[in-house]
## 1
Amino acid sequence: MTDTFKNTKKLYIKTYGCQMNVYDSERMAEALGASGYETVDVPDGADMILMNTCHIREKAAEKIYSELGRYKQFKRANPDLKIGVAGCVAQAEGEEIMRRQPMVDLVVGPQTYHRLPEMMKQVDAGEKALDTDFPEEDKFDHLPNRQLPKRAPSAFLTVQEGCDKFCAFCVVPYTRGAEVSRTPERIIREAQELVDRGVREINLLGQNVNAYNGDDWSLAKLIWALNDIDGLERIRFTTSHPNDMTDDLIEAHGTCAKLMPYLHLPVQSGSDKVLKGMNRQHTAEQYIRLIERFREARSDILISGDFIVGFPGEEDVDFNATMDLIREVNYGQAYSFKYSARPGTPAAERAFVSAEVADERLQRLQALITTQQRALQESMVGKDVDVLLERKGRLTGQMVGKSQHLHAVHITADDLEIGRIVRARITNSETNSLGAILAS
Ligand code: SAH
Ligand code: SF4
Ligand code: F3S
């Protein structure tokens, strides 16, 4: 066999949704790379367009169909173009996608994309391919190893998938299936490969990452093992559920040098009544106590969260309890959403809060979070932080990277090596970033 004649086809992948989809898109590109596909940055001229989709809110799902409509022009220009839908909309809607958009050639769920090369053979033969199983085998056993060229200094690594929590609003347990952890051995091997390719920071991913239990290891034990990899400088994890938090994980924030002082811990609401309706299985008070324990372990830890406003049954008093919780926790960062009824979830059957009320609450909540976020950023002006350099800035003489607290930092500096960690002095705070100079 010779490599001199290689028929490369162009693959355009568009990714929606959470970080796990970003990771999955990379792995799908690798899987299809073995079939002669090379990824490109624009859909024009591509031989294959693959949308990796998200089903979490109604808008996210509808966006997929309008985007598919837009791809019609490419199919007209190139009748051989193949169009595929992957991810959580694929899992939730399956064949329905092909019914609504007959030009779709392939539908593949998040647990079966290791079968993509086989599916592409079917598609190339002019057939439609659909696979939304939850197979017995582990897809990661069937994917190529990640021995590829040098890559960006920060990478995602999925360690756990699926969710058994069944929050009353959420589609994830249906689209991603039951909780499954990968073995520590495979994760450590993959982490080493990433580090060999220039990665300095690994963000461990799971829908419920702190429920990790591969070979009966806790997430903290896995983090400690990764801490031993030379050349790996930073470890992060996301997303956690309050009820799966373990003592060793809290403790590691005070003792594990490479574990970053950042915790994304969604609470969704500060009202016990709403939390009950959401089936979150914990109270606002329990969540606050948990945050306190993290702060005792690591006083400068940045807390991030997720909130839903306008959940069925949320009254003013409940919303005010959420605002109180936010004041008490003091977030460095948070994502907030208007409740979106998802077909098939228990809460979708309940009476809605009006859109006007939900809109108004969302605005008030976001304003409060913004105030907290700004105050934290302002308080950092004049301080020195460690920045992992990720790329050159858009302006010349500027480098961009991330602080330990995941703030984007724009440093006035010429051409420093990407992947290096430098000490920088914060000079100013912008809306979504910090400005800095190199610290002497
Ligand atoms: N596993 C993670 C998050 C999954 S989805 C967790 O439990 O935290 C990310 C966020 O989307 C959720 O935290 C929630 O805030 C939001 N979300 C999920 N379903 C939603 C819905 N039906 N309507 C509005 N927001 C939703
Ligand atoms: Fe969805 Fe709840 Fe599971 Fe998070 S914990 S993925 S919000 S069901
Ligand atoms: Fe969306 Fe699926 Fe992630 S629904 S948020 S892409 S797990």
## 2
Amino acid sequence: MKPRRDAIVALTAYDFSFARALDAAGVDLVLVGDSLGMVIQGHETTLPVTMDEMIYHCRCTAAGLERAVLMVDMPFMSHISPDEALRNAGRLMKEGGAQMVKLEGGREQSEVVRRLSENGIPVCAHLGLRPQSVHKLGGYRVQGREQDAAERMCQDALALQGAGADLLLLECVPSDLASRITGEVDVPVIGIGAGAGTDGQILVLHDMLGLTPGRIPRFVRNFMLDASSIQEALALYADAVREARFPAPEHGF
Ligand code: KIV
């Protein structure tokens, strides 16, 4: 899709019924995100989510998909070494039915990515705001605003691609930087809060359906406001991404 400049439409899902709805709406990539710790389990962060919980939700979601690619998050502390990562990613594929795993981290994850890739496991590397590092980052903040941080992120992206990453995800990154990274790497890049210059977009399902209480992040649009059903909201989102109407400049940094 990247060479054709076809925008990749992605959303999170955590169960059979929503997975079926996303598939029917033509979503290309479904992520069983560890955001389930917050939107399903009610935790403050994604940190408490376990491997067994990810596998359970992945299996539920896989049952609803016929067309979309199924990607699943490796939860906090599940990829602290290449061996541990391989064992856990293998479980997500064999027991959960995942087709790709996603892990948070920069070039320090290169050996992990290489081991997974060499064993036939497609990998997405998650850069920018990494929610599993929220306590280290000091909050949910835009990443890569300073020149040296921006350069580091570009180098991370290239290192991870070199190690075998098949996809990159940029979260809460200035739009200019996200466009630059998208242009510098060959693999597709999907963004959330990263502007319109990436190869695709992803949102947390509960955010775009207006189910998340409290302050809505700037990069989210509630598609239920213009829809009379969940199916219509999903179709509006898919069309808006494909026709480059979402994200608009006001959703970026
Ligand atoms: O866990 C998740 O849902 C994610 C998205 C924010 C992309 O990683």
## 3
Amino acid sequence: MEIKITKTQTPKVMPKESELGFGKYFSDHMFVMDYEKDKGWINPRIVPFERITLHPASTVLHYGSEIFEGLKAYRAENGDVQLFRPMENIRRMNRSAERMCLPQIDENDFLEYLTEFVRCEKDWVPHSFGTSLYLRPFMFGNDETLGVHSVARATFMIIASPSGSYYKEGINPVKIMIETEDVRTVRGGTGYAKCGGNYAASNRAGERANQKGYSQVLWLDGVERKYIEEVGAMNVMFRIGDEIVTPKLTGSILPGITRMSCIEVLKGLGYKVSERLLSVDELMGAIKSGELKEAWGCGTAAVVSPIGKLMYEDVEYVINGNEIGSITKQLYDILTGIQWGKTEDKFGWVYKI
Ligand code: PLP
Ligand code: COI
């Protein structure tokens, strides 16, 4: 479908790259498209970035039918703008849509809209290593009635935010608290989908962690409260002895694209990687015996982030002397090297705009 483009008459100026932070500034335009049950997706357009109006009964405001994605446009050393495995985000968005009874978007159309939008905003892709143009596709149900049912109208948008590092710590180790009261999701619930409600339900535990000086929480499974799942905005990996362990995808964990890429990189380097259940007791045992050598989180916003301190039942454990571990650093260098076009992309993950 042809995209109608209306350029802004009042372009903004990019803030200083060293002061970007995460998700605070937005580029000049946004992509918008409407869905009506009897017409399908209609009216794809790129318009000046502006506030949107919603009917007060709009479904998303009452029943939370919303999903989103997160990926980045990177500035390579030669000036090119590139994405990292965008088809994986597109497919995951459709899986999230299926879970939340929102409409599917044709994968090739989605990639075309994303590409056109990034082309339009390419001057907003910052230049310094570690910065990027964070892209946030999202979709919400937009029926103008209070009945509870799958929607007949929806809106799909993409906005873009020039960003630096997600954590104020940057590549320095973060402090994470293992949450023992609230749970994020349960099997059969919406954990594998990237829907707004998962994050809304996480905030209370996140606040408690922040008050104690921790960046985010590490969730335990919602059924037995026994197995490690993931952190608020990233998946987790642990180096226990010679094994790298990451929680297996049981349906309540987000299948991270960075997680999947880390597994492929690590296996390619010859490491033993296990996707399996990991109980908090086993993890605590490995900390106490000295077998836990490194821990890190991985995600688009967080990249690869070493975990330096873990709090469980009010006791703080220091991991690897609160230093970044050797495998964590190796992974960080390989992934960021591919993403920012500093090293050869042997995997074919980069998509040039
Ligand atoms: N887990 C959660 C809950 C997340 O929000 C994210 C971020 O997207 C991730 C994991 C990592 O996923 P990805 O690597 O696809 O960004
Ligand atoms: C991402 O890493 O892209 C995310 O979506 C995390 C987000 C909740 C900030």
## 4
Amino acid sequence: MTDTPESSPAVLGLPDPAGLNEFEALPPEQWAGHRRILLELFREHIYGQPPAVEPTITCDLRERVADACEGRATRHQVDIVLGEGALRLGALIFVPNDIASPVPAFAGLNFHGNHTVDPDPRIALPRAWVASNRAETGCDSNTASDASRGLAAARWPVERITGRGYAVATLYAGEIDPDFDDGFANGIHALERDPRGRGSGGTIAAWAWGLSRLREAMATIEGVDPSRIMAIGHSRMGKAALWAAAEDLDFAGAISSGSGCLGAALSRRCRGERIADITTRFPHWFCGRCADYADREHELPIDQHLLLGLIAPRPLYVASADQDHWADPEGEFLACVHATAIYRKLGRSGLGLDPSDDAMPPALPPLNRSVGHDVGYHIRPGHHDITPLDWWHVLNFADRQLKRPGH
Ligand code: GTR
């Protein structure tokens, strides 16, 4: 894609609603104002407002065993309790044993239940609705069962992650908000104070909100460094991870895999999944106004490189797969390229590539080669998934960005 005209910012007409192009460098106090403008635009046009609920949580430790990962990690099962117990979110948290000081960590949502992440029968089954898909969830009754224990273990290489000196935590997204169009009657939406309007947040905003609660729960666990928790997610959970880190500055950064449309991919390229597709199939994911941009991507006042820019100057990693055309891997890469302009204004290097540096826009890196600095990117061969190879690149990136001497 070395010279596709679509990739140039001029042809894409990428918007600059916060007037960032006027600045060579942005002092941190000025960036805060620009950042607020951008965040509000994303709330107003795409994700909606965060759930209008009392944010206070309490943590109820249900299990703590030191024999996870053949004795090399401690597993915690914690119920995150909202209000008087109107909603309980079950968090599954692994922390390496034998650590000298608190470690950095990853927080991510899973698709079908914590029990799918690790086959250990002591891991609680989710109480919430799960999709009826026998291959992935082992059930056809919207109720989780033992049949799906460990089915998503390849996406969560817990031994490898903890073995590299990181804690990792997950939560079943459906406990925050079940993933179907139910008129926002259940999950966290059932607890919302205000009547809902076109600007109210959808399921992605709810999941992002839940990721912040998972971050808070992790911060109560011995051995986790609360200042070094990164949001991570694949696909729809990647969209949620990016939005969570945009909304919540206490995340140390974000990692997305195959997050695609209204995740890391530029909308104006109109490649792969488009806004018309996503708002038709998943009308509950975004705010009411988002569907107005179906087939009108060029009218959006923002584009997804600015979502990535909302994570600046914190570390950001984007992973793509070359067969994942629906997620538009090139669009994900180019969003990183254009987000780099913001990282640079904040004195960081970003991806280290800037489209304005060269006559030609930067080309996708070779397969399996991780590129970048505080913005990292790789594209691997294969399909829409997060694999141990993706995690290997992510862990190497985290080593460079989050590790300190000793940990
Ligand atoms: C697809 C959707 C994508 C992505 C994916 C997933 O059906 O079109 O935007 O979120 O689901 O989550 O696996």
